[in-house]
Design a protein that fits this description.
Layout: H1 6-14, E1 19-23, H2 28-36, E2 40-45, H3 55-72, E3 78-85, H4 89-95, H5 97-114, E4 120-124, E5 139-142, H6 149-154, H7 156-168, E6 173-178, H8 187-204, E7 207-210
Parallel strand pairs: 1-2, 2-3, 3-4, 4-5, 5-6, 6-7
Helix pairs in contact: 3-5, 7-8
Length: 227
């Protein structure tokens, strides 16, 4: 969720949300603004999976992440760290599960060294659901109702219950992205789908994040509102 204005936060809170997810270097003031509306913050970090094999890139990105962790670790409304989002399928196939998991475990250990107080997760997705990450505190997946086919065929709640919950092995399970855009449906159908997904998420998991409140591509936190 990318926040540009107090009005956004007011609308999010009025929708009965209790947390927002921020990527990378959101201004620290966003934490304060969120706290003012009673909202917790999940701090997520992007990782360029196509470069994950490059030791220089990984070391540089790790240091950037650790600096951010040190910067915001004491924020009272910080909920958790999210290390990376959706490993690219061809990278997963080319590098293998052990390599990707090893990189994430190394990063998670470094984050815990700077901040042992907050839980750590990674936003996985159905494409790489077999990625083994037992070192994470929370198991997280991005799961949309219309893709991929295995979710559509099995059914949204059934997929979470029968496929993802067993992978969590007793740890908390989060759905870090779900939603439906109006290019694929009418606003009325979108609202109905979001409602049904949320009911399934509440029943089967520890919580979920709607993707997204504002335009995902506008990431500089300083854009005007388009009326």
């Amino acid at each position: 969720v990318f926040l540009h204005h107090e009005r956004d936060l007011e609308m999010i809170r009025k929708a009965n949300a209790n947390a927002v997810l921020l990527y990378d270097d959101a201004p620290p003031r966003v934490f304060d603004q969120a706290a003012g509306h009673g909202l917790m913050v999940l701090q997520a970090f992007s990782i360029n999976w196509q470069m994950i094999h490059d030791e220089d890139y990984f070391a540089r990105r790790s240091q950037e992440i650790l600096r951010r962790v040190e910067q915001v670790r004491d924020r009272p409304n910080l909920l958790a760290w999210v290390l990376g989002n959706e490993v690219v399928e061809w990278v997963y196939e080319q590098r293998g599960s052990d390599f990707i998991a090893g990189r994430l475990e190394r990063l998670a250990r470094a984050v815990r060294g700077v901040d042992p107080a907050h839980p750590i997760t990674h936003s996985n997705w159905p494409i790489t659901k077999e990625l083994k990450l037992p070192f994470l505190d929370i198991v997280s997946f991005n799961v949309y109702p219309l893709w991929p086919r295995e979710v559509v065929v099995r059914g949204y709640e059934e997929y979470i219950r029968d496929v993802l919950k067993p992978l969590a092995r007793g740890r908390p399970l989060w759905i870090t992205e779900f939603g439906l855009n109006t290019l694929e449906s009418t606003p009325e159908a979108q609202a109905d789908t979001l409602r049904r997904c949320w009911e399934a998420i509440r029943k089967q998991t520890a919580g979920g994040v709607v993707f997204s409140f504002s335009d995902e591509w506008w990431k500089n936190y300083d854009n005007p509102i388009a009326d």
